[in-house]
Design a protein that fits this description.
single chain; 164 residues; mainly alpha
């Protein structure tokens, strides 16, 4: 009994290990919605597991604040990138419409603006899948980091021993 700690600690450790291992096994097979739900449950269990041990509470507070900070920075960077993409798309469409409006007064200028609008819109269409792939890769790196935290602080050999 002393080897595994209290039954509650042992059960929580098993849950975390189960979710980490099941995510590794079914990373490619699961649909996106189910995988996101499993990742959310895994993150929640890692945080709860850190708070379960009285010895790890100060560490848990630091880790949770760190996770929230990294998440906020990650989301702000993504929001900036996606806002830039939407702005470039709107700018491209505006330039195209502006070129049509100018076409009756100055043909060369109208064609120039239309071409600029088409080029900007095409660039957005071209780079959107690349940005989406980078977003997915960054999210996977974040999940890998959280799995490392779970393995590092919640594995059986690091679970604090309670006398009982």
């Amino acid at each position: 009994m002393a080897k595994y700690g209290s039954p509650k600690q042992f059960a929580r450790t098993l849950k975390v290990e189960y979710f980490i291992e099941s995510d590794n096994d079914a990373a490619q097979d699961a649909p996106a919605g189910k995988r996101t739900k499993n990742l959310t449950m895994m993150i929640l269990l890692i945080v709860l597991g850190l708070f379960a041990s009285p010895i790890l509470i100060p560490l848990a507070i630091v880790v949770v604040v760190g996770i929230m900070s990294v998440s906020a920075i990650f989301l702000m960077i993504l929001a900036g990138i996606y806002m830039g993409i939407v702005g470039a798309l709107a700018g491209g469409l505006f330039m195209f419409v502006l070129g049509i409006g100018v076409l009756t007064q100055a043909v060369r200028t109208g064609i120039f603006y239309m071409g600029l609008g088409i080029a900007l819109t095409a660039a957005v269409i071209f780079f959107t899948p690349l940005v989406w792939a980078v977003t997915k890769a960054l999210f996977e790196m974040f999940v890998t980091f959280l799995k490392w935290i779970g393995r590092r602080f919640l594995s059986k050999k690091h679970t604090p021993v309670t006398e009982g």
